[in-house]
Amino acid sequence: MQRxxxxxxxxxxxxxxxxxxxxxxEETPSKAPKRRKALIISSDEDEPQSVFHNPHDTKRRxxxxxxxxxxxxxxxxxxxxxxxxxxxxxxxxKPSLTKLxxxxxxxxxxxxxxxxxxxxxxxxxxxxxxxxxxxxxxxxEVDMEESLRAEEERHPAKKESARPPKSPTPKKAKKSxxxxxxxxxxxxxxxxxxxxxxxxHADLETSVLTDEExxxxxxxxxxLYQKYKNRSSCLNPGxxxxxxxxxxxxxxxxxxxxxxxxxxxREEAESVIKExxxxxxxxxxxxxxxxxxxxxxxxxxxxxxEELNIPILSEDGLFDLIREKSGLSHPVKEEKKTPKKEQSSxxxxxxxxxxxxxxxxPSTKSKVKEEKETAKHKIKxxxxxxxxKKTKHEEPVPAVTLKVKKEPSxxxxxxxxxxxxxxxxxxxxxxxxVDKHKPTNIKEIVGxxxxxxxxxxLMNWLSKWYVNHDGKxxxxxxxxxxxNDDGSYFKAALLSGPxxxxxxxxxxxxxxxxxxxxxxxxxxxxxxxxLLKEEVSTLLGNKSLAGYFNGQGQAVSRKHVxxxxxxxxxxxxxxxxxxxxxxxxxxxxxxxxxxxxxxxNHPKIRSLVNYCYDLRFQRPRLEQIKGKxxxxxxxxxxxxxxxxxxxxxxxxxNDIRQSINHISLLSAKEDSVGKAGQxxxxxxxxxxxxxxxxxxxxxxxxxxxxxxxxxxLFFHDYSLAPLFVQQNYLQVTPQGNKKDVLAKVAATADAxxxxxxxxxxxRSNNAWSLLPxxxxxxxxxxxxxxxxxxxxxINFPGWLGKNxxxxxxxxxxxxxxxxxxxxxxxxxxxxxxxxxxxLLDNIVRPLAKEGNEGVxxxxxxxxxxxxxxEDLDSLIELTTWPGKKSLFDSVDGRxxxxxxxxxxxxxxxxxxxxxxxxxxxxxxxxxxxxxxxxLEEGExxxxxxxxxxxxxxxxxNLELDGLIKAKKKPAASTSKAAGGSKKAASSTAAKPKxxxxx
Amino acid sequence: xxxxxxxxxxxxxxxxxxxxxxxxxxxxLCKQSDFPHLMFYGPSGSGKKTRIMCLLRxxxxxxxxxxxxxxxxxxxxxxxxxxxxxxxxxxHLEVNPSDxxxxxxxxxxxxxxxxxxxxxxxxxxQREFKVIVISEGDELTKDAQHALRRTMEKxxxxxxxxxxxxxxxxxxxxxxxxxxxxxxxxPSEPEIVSILQNTCKREGLTLPPELAKRLVEKSERxxxxxxxxxxxxxxxxxxxxxxxxxxxxDWQAFLRDTASQIISEQTPAKLEKIRERxxxxxxxxxxxxxxxxxxxENLVNNCDMSIKAKTLEFATEYEHRMQAGAKHIFHLEAxxxxxMNIYKKFLSELVLTDDF
Lengths: 998, 356
What we know:
- Chain A: InterPro entries: AAA+_ATPase, ATPase_AAA_core, BRCT_dom, BRCT_dom_sf, DNA_pol3_clamp-load_cplx_C, DNA_replication_fac_RFC1_C, P-loop_NTPase, RFC1.
- Chain A: GO terms for molecular function: ATP binding; ATP hydrolysis activity; DNA binding; DNA clamp loader activity.
- Chain A: Residues 1-216, 329-416, 922-998 are annotated as: Disordered.
- The structure holds two protein chains of two kinds.
- By secondary structure, chain A is mainly alpha-helical.
- In chain A, the strands form three sheets. Chain A has a five-stranded parallel sheet, with helices on both faces. Chain A has a four-stranded parallel sheet with strand order 2-1-3-4, sandwiched between helices. In chain A, strands 10-11 form a two-stranded antiparallel sheet.
- In chain A, strand 7, helix 27 and strand 8 form a beta-alpha-beta unit.
- The termini of chain A are far apart.
- Chain B has three domains: 4-183, Rossmann fold; 189-236; 250-355, Zinc Finger, Delta Prime, domain 3.
- Chain B has a seven-stranded mixed sheet with strand order 2-3-4-5-6-1-7, sandwiched between helices.
- Classes of the chains: A mainly alpha, B alpha/beta.
- Chains A and B meet through helix 37, helix 39, helix 40, helix 41 and helix 44 of A and helix 3, strand 2, helix 9, helix 10 and helix 11 of B.
């Protein structure tokens, strides 16, 4: 991440420096040389680590140095390229230096090797190779000589430093000689050996493929795939100690892990890399800097890596790199190198009159910034030129490197500051980061880039607003379900979404972009009905706009837009009636209005939604925010690992504003960014219940968890946690003797049962102080008893579903009990457990046995027990048991239909069936009316008297409305047939009531 | 064609088949003008409800059998609408407040009080009070019972309350003391046998005494169940034979099967399967204490003497916890887990001793 940004920022200065550059290295370096030098950085980057007081500065200097010297090669090359440029440049300028760095390049040696890279083998080979190439011999010789010399100088320092096992130094030393030619190569033009090498390769692949070969190749891939499937996990897990590097020691370096490593799983290796700030890629590409290779590595990856000249590391190599980067091997070197530089920077600071001590331990961010900036300027003014000169004189002394670096960095920084601070540089110092890094144009808004994004929609809507609302045409109200509405109908837009994702920013920027004058009202303004009316309407109904609407549009210079921010904050006495007024305002507004709110489903907002073009903002994805945050980190010179940024973003639930605030907070205590800060961030993470239950039972997790941590797991969701634990504890295989498993299970179940007791107490007595106790019984104890690993899948607690099913059945049973109550004697329970099966049997048996003949006897039973047709279904549901076949299933479908028909025809409505009828009617809404067309006709024909009696009937039985309707069906048909004899209808309608009473 | 249980239900006190002394007492009670609140208690299927209806008929005549059911709607203090079904005649109202779940207090306060406050309009009726029958009184929450006790006292002039409960243990003493308790014990075996025989006679069937005896045993002296089973047996095989098979109730069979599965295998995986079966029982509305009882009975029958005591100990402990707790499955499962544990241990020890 950081690298990418680096390279991005470098462009500006490099352009600026173009003229300055005079190193004579004008040739465009071909791709191959660039790649070849990718590794140089590794040695280079030791320095930022070693420089104690301000790592950012040094890093900057380093990178920008490259730029300043580099010519107009501003291809969109990411970091590695930039680094290469640097090296190639320095080659020309002061070859010795480059050599020195290059000497540590292990890549060259392993161009095509697939195996672990422990001992650099092909030294001679490489030399030979280069001999064949037409290179500028003289240059080469110089380079080699110098590189050797540099090597010697460097070496003692390295050896002195306490190296962890398998020190990479010797390796590097050996490699150094082939490296020199590599540098050469980079100098040479397109006709480099690299290019040559590649050509035959390509030929082989494309042209000469016969069918056989193709077949062979297919077979090979199949074999490889089989191998891949069968390949083991790591060979000797934990056999090697993972070195403890300093945090972020790999920052900015990209890795790809392939194959089976010796001591780590691949995921483990990746997490190690991430932990130290490195990036893990999935595809071998230009940006990749190291390929970490294990057994059975993917040959394709290796081939590509070879082609791109990406250094290949073994697992040990990775560890060495970590050690190296984290400065374990450098304390001596550091001392040697840095004093001069430190001295100089300190001098600079003193000159500036700032207390230099404070500089070193940054207490408050702004102060530091201030100091830095002033320092930068000074550096530039006073030291740049002399130092630049110096570098040319002094040859291979390490200190020189540092000085050289310093120079461009100061320039670069100045430039970047100027860019950022463009409008008002002074203001920035005291500004919060959120404001400071506010997007300044719509392209910078995070996650709003697409064509279908809200920004685009809003732009579109706003730009067309005056065209759409010029009073000439009246746009149709769009279908609420229309997908791609452009909102032309609406006079206002409503931006809704969670806080901190850029709604207000979007609105203001869009207005700015389109040249609108934004008038903003937010929750801090009183927005009562009266005020809105007076202030806003005068503001909006501005005379100057009137001219615009009269057709001389362009004459008016400025257009207005009203931003109503935080409309859901319109509340209380202050803003009384504000919403109504706002709606009224929208209705006859002559300017566009943009409203913003968080919760668009809020009852207050709901009325507003109808008048607004609805634009919903979603939270940007983590990756989108991460980019932004990383660039801010870079601008603010905060060093933070990408993994940690991800953590912070996740912890803030993808809230950009809050993430920035967090970063800003972390930067304030810069020292602790790596340690204490990290812990804070991880603690804030909210775990899902699945993750929680996994942690509760996994022995691996228990290792570094205190008792408090374990009980904290429960509190991630204390209502779900016990259920999850209960559902899943049987999936766990506990550690220890197999014989004891059941004892452990029993102990766990016992603890859970006690936990349930406490749960009941908590909820019935509001004794929430018992919650920690419940945590122990419901989560910690089970975790202790069953500590092991999951063998099964973690399931969602079944209790919830079962409980609701139990509730549903209980409801059915109650209904059944209610209906049969007047003729049975049992309680609800006995009806359900004793009656139900026999009752159902009595109804279904005749149907099953006699078919259509049995219908009437079945119906008799139903009548006797006052059952509804629906009750039959609930009876069936209540008597089904798993594995038992219901008798009703064997009944022919036609018989069932006959029963239903006969039931509808014969059975009178009960008082409770009325209710069911009403409910049904509501559901069917319009459908119900169509059912009784005849009835309405009949009523109309029936004449005055009949209608009156009908009305009376209705009044009498208002609550039995459904009952009457249900009964009217047959009546309707009769009335129709009889040509509308109203009395028939009303008399039949009255009947059911009487019957029901009976 | 109603089921036999309902078809041959006695409608008058004089026609009751058992507890005849008690019936006589009740008749005498009706003859007096005064009439206390009553509480009928006894196990399910012993005829409480039948007796109550007979009593009402004795008091008000056959008018009491003209029942209508109505749905009453109440609004709870928390603005929730609840519906309760009532069955009423002109003289009495039968309600089951526990239908409203935790809102039964509202039912007591609104409905019962309102009915109790109104006077009987029809002076010509034999009594000047109405009767409110509260069924499943032991399901009433404490709140509802407290609401009831004052009502019982205050409106004693206009209404009498008859509570039907399974056990008085869950009725607060205040209510118990306000009621005349009438215990309706389950009919004895010979009583049930004779009733079954009578029923068969009326249906024109002959019932072998052995079969009758087995029916009684199977029904656990629950008369309702016995009659239902008799009818089911008739359906299965019409001329009764002595060794005719009497099918179990589904849930009983399921429970027994569950118990035997516990005996057959003791592993966490099995426990998980058992959990599913227990869930199934709970979903079907089998009360958890019945599940406990069924499990324990079946388990104890199938295990060695040495672990019987331990099993019972666990059962009592977890059932107690279950009553105090919220989620019954937790405690049922814990019991099963404990049993599996001790049973497995017992088995492994058995193997060890056998080896020697």
